[in-house]
Amino acid sequence: MDKRERDQPRVVLGVSGGIAAYKACELLRRLTESGHDVRVVPTAASLHFIGEATWSALSGNPAGTEVWESVHEVPHVRIGQGADLVVVAPATADLLAKAAHGLADDLLTNTLLTARCPVVFAPAMHTEMWENPATRENVATLRRRGAIVIEPAVGRLTGVDTGKGRFPDPVEIFELCRRILARGPEARPGDLAGRHVVVSAGGTREPLDPVRYLGNRSSGRQGYALARTAAARGARVTLVAAHTELPDPAGVDVVHIGTAGQLREAVLKAAADADAVVMAAAVADFRPAVYATGKIKKKDGEEPEPITLVRNPDILAEISADRAHSGQLVVGFAAETDEVLANGRAKLARKGCDLLVVNEVGEHKTFGAAENEAVILAADGTETPVPFGPKEVLADKVWDLVSARFGEARS
Question: Where is CTP bound in this sequence (predicted)?
């Protein structure tokens, strides 16, 4: 094996026996095309859905189910030992139970026991199986041990059934895996395990009439990056999403809203048991005092009637002042166009949050872009600059600071 091959991140893709096994082919394609060395380890049951030859052809590596194959290479030990990431997709209720109880009756379960790298499970099963107390306990056990168990999606299942248990979008699973690998071996993903975090994202819209609204340029990309990276680090994530065209992140509970009032209601509800609340949404400061039930018409020769605005609730200040519990951390965002740091420091003092992410915005800055730069101000007076780069990098820095403060609270 040459140096280029050794430098490729090594991913084990475990596939258990569910109908969603065919969707793992898309995940495998994205992993291989992005430069990862992927070894597929299917269970015997999964081969009823996708054959061994398919996995070998798509990955370029052998795919086997038994510990007795190629015994001289000790595959039941070596595969897990050499992996940078193990992702099981789909993970059935049976596979989750075996992993939680340390059973090792095939190559995949042996691999899970020998892996010392991050492990991700992407469950897919019927709603009744996902909600069964035995499955919930197994999931909780795996999460306590540092594994990332993605929340399944809600949607069409097999047959005519619909509910929670659908295999998450393979593209979103790939993005989560990519973020875990990007953080490197020195930053294991479980530092937010057992934590519930709430993130708001996108831009609210305040209706003027049935066809018009007051809004802003927010794309929701930064908030979605915060949600994805928190999930990649083991947190249970509630994303309160205003208007955005982005797909729901894998493993995240998403609450879609429209107005500032709806965002306030959803955030306060989700924050009741949250360890941290990150208000990344661009919330409208004002709304029309009167909503026109019919479309506002223009009249020839007449100027339009002035639109009177009233203030919306200050959600960040409200959450900061009235926290659900004493250890809850609150992070705000400040989008400024001038005197960025001065205005940010004043806003931090005024809002009363623990951290405030301050960035300069404009027509061609931040909004809608994949990159961002900011300074994270803390209530203790410290300042953490984050240079221009992907929004995921800024998101990880925010969670680094939040995680450190969780640690301080325990000590």
Answer: 285, 295, 313-316, 333, 347, 351
